[in-house]
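Q:
My hope is that you can spare some time for a protein that puzzles me. I hope you can help me see how the letters and the tokens relate. Thank you; the sequence and its tokens follow:
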Amino acid sequence: MGTKKDIRELTTRFDPMEWEALSLQNSASGRGIIFQNGVNLVHDAYRRLSRPGQNWLDAGCGTGRLAQLLAEEGANIFGLDADEAMLRFAKEKSERRTSKGGPVSFIGASVDGLPFCREKLDGVAAVSLLGCLAEPQYFFLEIYQILRPGGYALLTFTNRHSVMLRVNNMVH
């Protein structure tokens, strides 16, 4: 079994409750610090670059954590994930949301066939998604087609051989 397939299997079969718990542990235990760092980087850049009312995609949205943060800033967010369990969890969490902000629409689809018209979106965000893709070049082509001229792509990359990830796993 190749490395690329291993990564996809690890990420597409993750339990949403475990993933959410891990991502929320970062401040107390440090276990989710790698993922949370990516969320923070994208969120900070988004705040500087976006305007309320814009249309943004959170590609590989998982449990919807980033999508919710971006929506709180007033944009219209599309959360996209191919994992049905993750998407269901994100939708349920979004329905319980009490904060103000723009809407979040969740879509079940793969990132290699994004269901958007050309030049539809003002921005695309993806945290730790690229290392999960067997052929990320197709995702880049999709982004290029759906972004409006002057749009932004905010992407983070963590792979399973990352020094930061290995140190994080050794410590915790």
Observations:
- The longest helix spans residues 33-49.
